[in-house]
Amino acid sequence: MTANSVVLQDLPADLQRECLPRHVAVIMDGNGRWAKRRGMPRIMGHRRGVDVLKNLLRLCRDWSIEALTVYAFSTENWGRPSEEVEFLMTLFERVLRKELQEMMQEDVRIRFVGNLSALPRSLQAEIERSMEETANNQGIQFTVATNYGGRQEIIQACRAIADKVQQGLIQPDQIDEALFEHHLYTVGIGDPDLLIRTSGEMRLSNFLLWQMAYGEIYVTDTLWPDFDRNEFHRALCAYQQRERRFGKL
After folding, report:
1. Is residue 120 part of a domain?
2. CATH number assigned to the domain comprising residue 129
3. How does pLDDT run across 170-193, given as a tens digit for each residue?
4. 113, 197, 205, 234: which has the highest count of C-beta atoms within 10 A?
C-alpha cells in the first residue's frame, strides 16, 4: 500500500450505496495464465495479483463495503509445483510484514481462515501478529482464506459438534444452523452477498460451500491480474440488478 491510498475513490454515479453488497467474496483465478500469455514465469502473475488485491481492498473501503473475503490458497493448491508453493508462502509472509503498518493506518481488520497449522511456522507467526494487531480496528473486515477447503471446513465442524455431543455438552436436537455456523472457520464474519470469480471458470472450487447457500455469483472472463476498478464496477452493477428472494416469492 502507498501513501496515495488515503485518497478516497468516489462511488460511481450509477451505483446505489444502499444496494451494494455488504460482504464481497472473491476467487482470484488466472494469475498463472496471465503470466504465461506474456511469456513470464507464473510467479509474476502472483506478484501482479497482490497489487490488484490491494486496490480492490481500497475500493471496498472507499465504497463502504463492510467485508471482503478472498481465496488465497486452497487445500488443493499443495498439488502445484513445489517451487510455486514455496514462492506463494514466502510472498504471503513478505506482504504481511510489509503491509501491516498501513493496514493499521487504514483501520483494516485482517483475519485468516483455514487449516493454518499446516503453514510454515514463520508464516503462522506473521499471520498471528497481523490478526492480533488489527483485532480492534473498526474498518473493513478483510478475511484471507489460506489452506482453506469448504468440505474440510464442514467436516471439522461436524467433528467438533460430535465431540461435544459425546461429552454431553449438547444434545443432538440442539444442533441447528446457528450452532453449526459457530463451529465454522468463518464464525462471526457473516455470509457473502456476492461472490466474484475471475478467469471465466463456472464453479466454486470448494470455496465457502456452506456460506454461499444464497449468495449471488458473478463470473468474468477477465484474469485476476487484469481485474481493475472498471471490472469491479461492472460486477456491482450486475449485482444491483438482481432480485434476492432467498427462496421466497
Report:
1. yes
2. 3.40.1180.10
3. 999 999 999 999 999 999 999 999
4. 197
Q: CA–CA distance from 97 to each of 2, 101, 127, 160, 200 (Å)?
A: 14, 8, 9, 33, 32
User: Which single residue is written with the C-alpha cell 451505483?
Assistant: 15
Q: Are strands 194-197 and 23-27 parallel, antiparallel or unpaired?
A: parallel
CB 147 within 8 A of CB 73: yes
Q: Rounded to the nearest 10 degrees, what angle do helices 229-240 and 42-62 cross at?
A: 50
Residue 24 belongs to what domain range?
20-147+192-239
Active-site positions read: 29, 77
Place 5 in a pLDDT band, splitting at 50, 70 and 90: very low
How many C-alpha atoms does 1 have within 13 Å on its Cβ side? 24
Number of domains in the chain: 1
| Radius of gyration of the chain from its Cα atoms, rounded to whole angstroms | 19
Cα 189 from Cα 22, distance rounded (Å): 11
Contact of 75 with 206, CB cutoff 8 Å: yes
Instruction: Give the closest residue to 53 by CA, choosing from 29, 87, 34.
Output: 29
Across residues 121-150, what is the average pLDDT?
A: 97
Structure confidence at residue 4 (pLDDT): 44
100 has a pLDDT exceeding 70? yes
Q: Which of 157, 215, 147 is nearest to 187 (CA)?
A: 157
Name the β-bridge partners of 110.
Answer: 142
